[in-house]
Design brief:
The chain is mainly alpha-helical. It has six helices and no strands. It is about 75% helix and about 0% strand.
Length: about 100
């Protein structure tokens, strides 16, 4: 499954009956809960990275990507929007990009 596939699947669950899927349940709770869940998953990934557990980090990273896409969907931001932003930054040093903000 690609990130595009996952993003499409998540978008298809927006407005669906919350009893039909975990994704629909999260989206029904709104952007705040989706952001909170993303934050929880990011912290779990950080913990596994610090511990050096590659298998657990891999699992948590998958959770982070999923919950990032759920949060973006809840906020009406598409993966294409994020990829377009990354494309705009391509060829610009991270230092220069950060200084421009």
């Amino acid at each position: 499954m690609t990130l595009d596939d996952l993003a499409s699947l998540i978008a298809s669950r927006k407005g669906a009956d919350p009893s039909s899927s975990w994704t629909a349940q999260l989206l029904a709770k709104g952007p705040e809960r989706c952001a909170e869940k993303f934050g929880e998953e990011a912290i779990e990934a950080i913990i596994e990275a610090v511990k050096g557990d590659k298998d657990r980090l891999t699992s948590e990273a998958a959770d982070v990507l999923y919950h990032l896409l759920v949060m973006l969907t809840a906020c009406d931001v598409s993966l294409d929007d994020v990829l377009a932003e990354l494309s705009k930054r391509q060829g610009t040093s991270g230092i220069a990009e950060k200084a421009s903000r």
